[in-house]
Give the backbone structure.
Amino acid sequence: MLLEVSELTKSFGSLNVLKGVNMRVERGEMVALMGPSGSGKSTLLNIIGGLLAGDSGKINLEDRAYGTRGPASVVDVRRNKVGWIFQDFHLLENLSAVDNVAIALELSGVPSVEAVAVAEDALRKVGLGDRLNFIPDQLSGGQQQRVAIARAIAGNRPVILADEPTGNLDIASGKAVMKLFQELCHDKENPISILMVTHDPDLASNADRMLLLNDGKTEASDIRTAWGLDEEGEEE
Ligand SMILES: Nc1ncnc2c1ncn2[C@@H]1O[C@H](COP(=O)(O)OP(=O)(O)OP(=O)(O)O)[C@@H](O)[C@H]1O
Ligand SMILES: [Mg+2]
């Protein structure tokens, strides 16, 4: 198992957000995480990504065990294990596509020359080989998100955490991102795993599996139960 979350809890003051989350993601799996606004999806991603400490429970990611450690003691998880993709891309606006990807590698200690080579590779992989020197302003929203995806996959991180990655994209670009995610996860040579938050059941249906975060716990879900639709597709 690549990623395993066991009995993870997290409260903010008296608000119990995560009440014992159990979930697993295998290598090569694309998993969609859904749930109402405020149900704790981003909180769960932040703990898995080593940005926030849980209160109790455990996370195993490859050879790493954490979950209740503070961000300062999981630096290696952030550097080597997880890549992030956000709704609003988080690109540096004055840097070219290749530099946006390379800088992330340089920050984790990769020498510049090598970082640029790896960045170019990653950008080719996401279909931006002909846009290496464009700055974000010169790219469409979908292309900017591809730069962010290249940044997330560069450096061979086994897990990508994507918090509403298509939230700022039009329908066609959103679908293209889903297709790219599928290719990256189902790659025969070097499959990665993606845990992706989305509110859109259509986009979620591109995943291998869906999880619903509800009342502080995750449950397996198919799209109908997640959206309150009964077997015939009617609203309940
Ligand atoms: N740092 C914090 N301090 C206090 N409360 C927080 C903090 N972070 C999150 N919360 C609360 O925890 C709950 C879960 O927040 P979270 O952002 O994880 O929800 P979400 O499922 O990602 O929602 P959305 O779909 O709107 O993005 C919310 O009620 C939120 O207000
Ligand atoms: Mg959120």
Summary: Helices lie at 41-48, 75-81, 97-107, 112-125, 141-153, 171-185, 201-204, 223-226.
